[in-house]
Amino acid sequence: MTTADDRPPAFPRGINLHGDDPQAMRRQLRAYFTSTFDRYESLFETLACDAAYYEHAIPLRHPLIFYFGHTATFFVNKLLLTHLIDERLDPRIESVFAVGVDEMSWDDLNEERYDWPSVAEVKAYRAKVRAMVTRLIDEAPLSLPIDWNHPWWAIVMGIEHERIHLETSSVLIRQHKLAYVKPHPHWRPCTEAGAAPDNSLVKIPAGSVVLGKDKSSPRYGWDNEYGRHEADVAAFQASRHLVSNQEFLTFVEAGGYSHPGYWEDEGKEWLDFTHAEHPSFWVPASNGWRLRLMTEEIPMPWNWPVETNYHEAKAFCRWKAASSGQPVRLPTEDEWQRLLDHAGQREVADRADHANLQLAHFASSCPVDRFAHGDFFDLTGNVWQWTETPIYPFEGFDVHPIYDDFTTPTFDGRHNLMKGGSWISCGNEAEPESRYAFRRHFFQHAGFRYVVSKELKHVPGSHYETDKLLSEYAEFHYGDSYFDVPNFPKALVDLAIDALGDTPRRKALDLGCASGRATFELARHFDLVTGIDFSARFIGQGVALARGESLRYTLVDEGELVQYKSRSLADLDLQDTAGKVEFFQGDACNLKPQFTDYDFIMAANLIDRLYQPARFLESVHERLNLGGMLMIASPYTWLTEHTPRADWLGGFKKDGENFGTLNGLKAVLGAHFEPVGEPCDVPFVIRETRHKFQHTLSEATFWKRVR
Amino acid sequence: MTTADDRPPAFPRGINLHGDDPQAMRRQLRAYFTSTFDRYESLFETLACDAAYYEHAIPLRHPLIFYFGHTATFFVNKLLLTHLIDERLDPRIESVFAVGVDEMSWDDLNEERYDWPSVAEVKAYRAKVRAMVTRLIDEAPLSLPIDWNHPWWAIVMGIEHERIHLETSSVLIRQHKLAYVKPHPHWRPCTEAGAAPDNSLVKIPAGSVVLGKDKSSPRYGWDNEYGRHEADVAAFQASRHLVSNQEFLTFVEAGGYSHPGYWEDEGKEWLDFTHAEHPSFWVPASNGWRLRLMTEEIPMPWNWPVETNYHEAKAFCRWKAASSGQPVRLPTEDEWQRLLDHAGQREVADRADHANLQLAHFASSCPVDRFAHGDFFDLTGNVWQWTETPIYPFEGFDVHPIYDDFTTPTFDGRHNLMKGGSWISCGNEAEPESRYAFRRHFFQHAGFRYVVSKELKHVPGSHYETDKLLSEYAEFHYGDSYFDVPNFPKALVDLAIDALGDTPRRKALDLGCASGRATFELARHFDLVTGIDFSARFIGQGVALARGESLRYTLVDEGELVQYKSRSLADLDLQDTAGKVEFFQGDACNLKPQFTDYDFIMAANLIDRLYQPARFLESVHERLNLGGMLMIASPYTWLTEHTPRADWLGGFKKDGENFGTLNGLKAVLGAHFEPVGEPCDVPFVIRETRHKFQHTLSEATFWKRVR
């Protein structure tokens, strides 16, 4: 037993940033900062010697000396960006400690060598940073509230960032050689252990969940928490307890690690690479299994939650499904939220006595039946719970300007969310709203709860389009205006609606629809609009939007620097058009027969990209009802790379005289069409970088089918 | 002898287009048109049979049937362009007769086959055109005066065009087989012949000439006649007579055609190809030389002017120079004008009795001592006179919108001017202002007069820049504004002058000057401005402008269609800066030592095109006086094709944070510079086609050298 003096000081649980008393806010923030900085330094006191700082705990991550310095440098970097400070404290040290945090992959080893500073140097550097941040908190001008755009957001970000590393460093220490660590009075594990309770399934009725934080929230949040996500969750069953070491042992003893059928492809690759035969923190010993904790090994506490990566958790579920005949799997993020709502446990994070969370009890897990939450145990705390859900951005997601790569690199379908927090998750980490995601082979203080459900919903797309052309077109169709030039597809549709007068508006065809904006705009006026493009990649953007997803893309600002953008139909008040559009991949020069009976056909920026424009124009009347209208808009940029010279419609001398594309259009379309009105130039702008744009005029003409 | 009835009707000599009586103008134009159309048709009556229309007179040009139809089709094509008519008369015939007029080269044979209409069909077609044009002249709305932009200009153009073909077709008939031609009462040659007079040299004192027609002139002119050219002409001597057949015989008999030393390279190539041994119209016969006229051969009239191409005339001069020891050559265009001025013969063309011109006397040449003009004979008329001058555009040259390829294809340094006209030159052809140029190997009714002079002036550049990048930059620097964006180099200089305040303005350096506009703009304010660019082709544009020449370039409108543009310093009120600039080719990353002691250095759109931008920035202070100012403007468009990734100044994450180019500039320049003022974006637009533009923002920053 420890005495009262041995216990670590109380650790604040987070902070309300909406106070209206600046002095009170300074006091609160100072305590929040100091306690975090202290607790982080005390964590490194569990290292037995200086060598422990420099030897890799695992080959995939930097040695601990990096993390010791990194959280301090992070303050400096972010404070520079919000101009709370003007100069670096130590450019050399800060260059060493700036980057390299990203979890590396087991299949992506990095053998770079670093010239690390000494532990004493880093301690001295941390003291300088501590003094600087403390002085800022005490003296820098402060207006309230502190929100997303506030310069002090960088201070809170620095603190929450250090709390994340408090946990991830504790994992590295747990993965270090036993000889490099030592017990510490502030980091004492739970001593209760015994046989595990039988697990059982609890029924959860169908219901809906709403996720996403509002920017007006008084609590700090990372970029990925903001926005909104609503979902209906079908009825399912969930295990009352987290899976214990004892329950997982059945899987190990059933040969689960050597049965490829239980493992998904990515899990099999991991297994082939690591030859794992049991959970990573399990230690086989002559007298049975033992468990590695942060600073010691103990006889296996069978009633503690097992700790696994996603692949192991998933394999357990597949084994259990096979043996039980039930659709066992991990919960989704929505289902975890539904559990929390159903159990009425949303506020659990703020109650110190109520969960093994926030370092409130132990420096380790504890029995899975210690903290009851409604019908369940450990809905939060003890260990993180893997989900089936790769992290994705909520509607309205936005990167934070001073940390644009906190989440975006993980929007790749390869980083799964863990929910609930562990015994060491503090501050933002411990909140139900927080959304941490890791590569699926990664280890944290993380285990799982399983569910039984036949349904597994499609996860919204998380991919940010980075292909230059596709992202430029996304912005061109759905993004911002530049040089005060109105949105081009919308301007064309406005022109068209004027020109159409009171002709029928049943079916319209947007040929060469690219990203599809005009297709949606036309659907404001027509019953059905078909968008066709040669490029399936472009079509994909319209399809995703019509499905209700956001179009996410990066825009180059300068060199490799990008900004992250996102647009949904609702942003453009086009949500009601989604049911009236259809998109197809197709070739305007060789269109399938079913595309016919249109009242209006638009061909915008198309004809000078066709390999046989005349072939298209000679047959387009077959698609159009008699009396229907054809609209052609083009900058007439003829290039042999798209259209053989012999197939240009104009832009050359013919019989000795200038023969423009408009002459060519009249000649080819004359057989079935009459021109309507005068040609007019419609401008458009395509953004290439923050400074560089294409600014083009597309000549719009209307042609009525008369024959 | 012919009777009065046999004589052709009187042939109007040209027309004053500035009358104020529309009915009188209609009468005059009708007579001008009808007489020209008649005379042209009568020319073809010298053909002996229909076969004569279809066999090539010379392989390098179309058969005569083409020319018979072509002048009629030309009316249709040009009247369509000025909208005096709306429809073609006969699309099939007009497609056949539209193009192919361009003289082809002896080294550029074209063996295309044509499906020619019958002579009767062409006659019927000509009758339709005649009726259409006559009706237009009688009935179309007419406001006076008829000038360059007037729709009726197309009518006058059609008539003058046919008068040109009257002459060129007469040459083809003269080159046709004798069996294919027959004498005609309207086309009777001169019958006077005898021994030639001795030629002698007449001294012309130095003087100046002014060439170029004004757009307000009441006479029709082709595009190349307009604008202005002033020149000082050094004293020279000129032969009193055109070179006669007799005088040329000495050269032939001296073996001139087989002596390569007398021939220029291009002349030697022509000689190798043709194996010519005497003038083209000379016919060797058993009883001595004979001369081919249009419809007959006659015994050699020794006192008529010899007819040669430029190469033969030039070889004669080189032979004569070699044998006389004097600098004998052909006159330049300026010298021919000086002759005319000196002899007071500018108005000679209007006087029917005064020259063998305008078909006023014969359908052939006549003796070289028949028509005296002051101290000379045949300053105009008899045969054309080759000059040393390749045709080039006068200052202010502009293409005519309905005939943009009348002259521009001949601005290639390979087409030499002929002056003075021949016995068949009528209307515009007969005017001293007219400027006809042909390939130097080409035959017309053309001979020469020689001059003796040590000087041969540089001919102004005639080249139209068609290279995409160079012509786009010419327009970018010196051309028009688009989207209301002010001229970029000028805007930068205005910004710079503001920023410089009252600092010294002795020497400025425009580094990466490209086409040089900012160099000239800076020279409004500095005593000396150095423009340096990596590209000698760009430098060439500034050098030409500083030399007083115009920058001529084509701009793509659409596909292959271009417009012709020209700019001089005077157009931009920069003519006074020419003496204060110097241009050098150089590498900003490795500048020669002499470029130093500047008060101001501008580097616009440069740094992101350098292969080692830091190397440039680290040493640029060495070029700048202490207290001097450096201006950098750049869109920061970093591309690995210009700058290796490792050498970018910014535009990437550094130590985990966004590091923009401005950060990079501060870091590199900090050692010697302090930033002045705030960065500002200066827009620029580069025109690619009539519809397509690059629209870019260049961030301008100022840096004062303080160390």
CATH fold-level assignment of the largest domain in chain A = paralog of FGE (formylglycine-generating enzyme)
Approximate shape of chain A: elongated
Cα-atom radius of gyration of chain A: 31 Å
Strand order of the largest sheet of chain A: 20-17-16-21-22-26-25
The whole-number mean of residue pLDDT values of chain A reads: 92
Tally of discrete structural domains of chain A = 3
> Largest protein interface?
A-B, 44 and 44 residues
Count of helical segments of chain A? 16
Oligomeric category: homodimer
Beta-strand proportion of chain A: 15-25%
For the termini of chain A, the CA-CA separation is 97 Å
The CATH homologous superfamily of the largest domain in chain A is named paralog of FGE (formylglycine-generating enzyme)
Pathway (chains A, B): Amino-acid biosynthesis; ergothioneine biosynthesis
Protein name (chains A, B): 5-histidylcysteine sulfoxide synthase/putative 4-mercaptohistidine N1-methyltranferase
GO molecular function (chains A, B): formylglycine-generating oxidase activity
Keywords (chains A, B): Iron, Oxidoreductase
Question: Which keywords apply here?
Answer:
homodimer, 707 residues, alpha+beta, Four Helix Bundle (Hemerythrin (Met), subunit A), paralog of FGE (formylglycine-generating enzyme), Rossmann fold, 3 domains, 28% helix
Structure overview:
The structure is a homodimer of 707-residue chains. Chain A is α+β, with helices and mostly antiparallel strands and 707 residues long. Chain A has 3 domains: 22-180, Four Helix Bundle (Hemerythrin (Met), subunit A) (Up-down Bundle), CATH 1.20.120; 201-452, paralog of FGE (formylglycine-generating enzyme) (Alpha-Beta Complex), CATH 3.90.1580.10; 468-705, Rossmann fold (3-Layer(aba) Sandwich), CATH 3.40.50.150. Helices cover 28% and strands 20% of the residues of chain A. Chain A has 16 helices and 26 strands. Chain A has a 7-stranded mixed β-sheet with strand order 20-17-16-21-22-26-25. In chain A, helix 1 runs parallel beside helix 6 and helix 8 (265-274) crosses helix 9. The longest helix of chain A is centred in the first third of the chain and has 23 residues, at 22-44. The N and C termini of chain A lie far apart (97 Å). Chain A binds chain B through residues 77, 80-81, 94-95, 98-99, 404-405, 483, 557-561, 635-638, 648, 650-653, 655-661, 681, 685, 689-699, and chain B through 77, 80-81, 94-95, 98-99, 404-405, 483, 557-561, 635-638, 648, 650-653, 655-661, 681, 685, 689-699.
